[in-house]
């Protein structure tokens, strides 16, 4: 599953407005309910807050993982605060939650314009039974080179089983070669239209289904997208 949670703010709220507050316990509960509806094994989140000044919950990933009884990893892009808050102490980034064991974590910088405008890709090796799977959670800016730079990074491990999930800010990613990666949203007819996408290693997995979680828009300003995969 992939879900952009808009820094823990509901749809219609502005997380960049210092006068507005998000990340409450009630909002954490709402996000947890959305995520638990399909009993996912692996969840990739984007726009995840940590220590932001207008978030009621400072350790957001930890609290959400505790509600779902999952292991977790968090990787920050950079400092992030509402407009006008100085000095910035909060951060935003990606997270991966899973009921499986996490063997290793890497936070890889993919885009850099300045210390305030940068994006990273969070990678985690997850042990699914006895099989390792490399899972990526990403959120492109996007710069024109974002997808190509990321594709080079992914293909360094193309011989491994990989799952690439996130907010691509793109409706298709031609930079990911179809010989190595398949887009779950395009494997069914008619294809699903979304900038929140899921890719998997060709020859490693077989898609069974894909859908949006009902009522996930409202809890955030993005839909939660999920699929079911089988080993191939």
Describe this structure in words.
The chain has a 6-stranded mixed β-sheet with strand order 5-6-7-8-10-9. A 4-stranded mixed β-sheet has the order 1-2-4-3, covered by helices on one side. The chain is globular, with a radius of gyration of 17 Å. Strand 7 (131-139), helix 3 and strand 8 (162-167) form a beta-alpha-beta unit. By secondary structure, it is an alpha+beta fold. 44% of the residues are buried. It is 15% helix and 39% strand. It has helices at residues 25-36, 60-68, 146-155, 216-219, and strands at residues 2-4, 42-50, 71-79, 91-98, 101-112, 118-128, 131-139, 162-167, 181-183, 196-201, 205-212, 225-231.
**What spatial form do the alpha-carbon principal axes imply?**
globular
Question: How much β-strand is present in the residues?
Answer: 35-45%
Elements, N to C (H/E) = EHEHEEEEEHEEEEHE
- Radius of gyration (CA) equals 17 Å
Describe the biggest sheet?
A: 6 strands, mixed
Low-pLDDT stretches are none
Average pLDDT number: 96
Q: Percentage of helical residues?
A: 10-25%
Count every helix, treating DSSP H or I runs of 4 or more residues as helices.
Answer: 4
Structural class: alpha+beta
Number of strands: 12
How is the largest sheet built, in terms of strand order?
Answer: 5-6-7-8-10-9
First and last CA, distance: 19 Å
Which features characterize this protein?
single chain; 232 residues; alpha+beta; six-stranded mixed beta sheet; four-stranded mixed beta sheet; 12 strands; globular
């Amino acid at each position: 599953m992939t879900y952009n949670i808009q820094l823990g703010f509901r749809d219609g709220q502005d997380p960049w407005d210092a006068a507005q507050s998000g990340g409450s316990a009630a909002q954490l509960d709402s996000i947890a309910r959305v995520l638990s509806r399909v009993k996912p094994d692996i969840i990739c989140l984007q726009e995840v807050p940590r220590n932001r000044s207008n978030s009621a919950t400072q350790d957001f990933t930890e609290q959400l993982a505790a509600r779902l009884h999952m292991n977790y990893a968090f990787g920050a892009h950079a400092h992030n605060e509402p407009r006008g808050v100085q000095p910035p102490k909060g951060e935003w980034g990606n997270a991966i939650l899973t009921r499986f064991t996490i063997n290793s974590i890497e936070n890889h910088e993919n885009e850099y314009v300045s210390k305030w405008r940068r994006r990273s890709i969070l990678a985690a090796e997850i042990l699914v039974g006895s099989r390792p799977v490399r899972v990526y959670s990403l959120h492109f800016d996007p710069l024109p080179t974002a997808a190509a730079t990321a594709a080079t990074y992914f293909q360094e491990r193309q011989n491994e089983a990989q799952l690439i999930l996130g907010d691509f800010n793109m409706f298709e990613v031609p930079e990911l070669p179809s010989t190595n990666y398949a887009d779950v949203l395009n494997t069914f007819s008619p294809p699903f239209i979304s900038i929140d996408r899921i890719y998997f290693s060709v020859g490693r997995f077989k898609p069974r289904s894909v859908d949006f979680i009902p009522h996930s828009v409202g809890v955030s300003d993005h839909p939660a997208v999920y699929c079911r995969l089988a080993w191939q």
